[in-house]
Structure formats: structure tokens, C-alpha cells
């Protein structure tokens, strides 16, 4: 009986962790979608088509991160290729005006990433 309780407790804990990880992935995809909706004024039809694209991207990023956990360079290479593929899929669903807005949106995100990277580097230099 005691063994059964331990097994059930362990199972509940493991399910909680996997549920938490799933929610994090879903949150990332939803956050990306919200940003795109706001920046591009997406139609309901576009939202419906883009949602599974972003979900698949997040899922593949997780798989690649685990697969190449000891090879940072390979992680970066696969991440870039995945983002390029995702961007191409999204662009195929956009109007000409939205494509221009999307390119500006992506450029702004690149600039923000660089700024965050520079701040992180300064903090590491201070240590």
C-alpha cells in the first residue's frame, strides 16, 4: 500500500511538471500571436492559420534544444533555419501591406535582442 502511494505521488508530480512545460510552450506561442495580431492587424482567418504555425515552431524549438543541448552552434543553426521557415509560412498568408509591416516588426525585434544582449554582456563584464 505504501509503495502504491509513492508511485501515485510520483506520477502526480511528473504530470505537474509536464503540464507546466506544456503551458510555457503554449504561452510563448500565444505571446507571439498576440504581438503579430497587434502589429499586423491580422484577420480572424489569418489568426486561425498562423496559430498552428507558431505552435509547431515552439514545439520544434524545444525538440532541437534537447537534441542539440551539448552543441550551442548547432542549436543556433537549427533555430535560425526554423525561424526562416516559419517566417516564410507566415508571409505566405499576409497581404502586401502586412508583409511590409512584418519586415519592420522583425527588424525591431532584432534591434531589441541586440540591446538585451549588450546589457547582458555589460552585467557579465562587471562580475
Share of residues in helices? over 70%
- Helix/strand order, N-terminal first: HHHH
| Average of per-residue pLDDT values | 81
Structural class: mainly alpha
Kindly, what is the distance between the CA atoms of the first and last residues, rounded to a whole number of angstroms? 53 Å
What proportion of the residues form beta strands (DSSP E)?
Answer: under 5%
Number of strands: 0
Number of domains: 1
> DSSP helix count?
4
Structure described in brief:
By secondary structure, this protein is an all-alpha fold.
What does this structure look like?
With 127 residues, this protein is an all-alpha fold. The protein is 90% helix and 0% strand. It has one domain. It has four helices and no strands. The longest helix is centred in the first third of the chain and has 39 residues. About 6% of the residues have low confidence.
List keywords for this structure.
127 residues; mainly alpha; 0% strand
Protein topology:
Elements: H1 2-40, H2 44-67, H3 72-91, H4 96-126
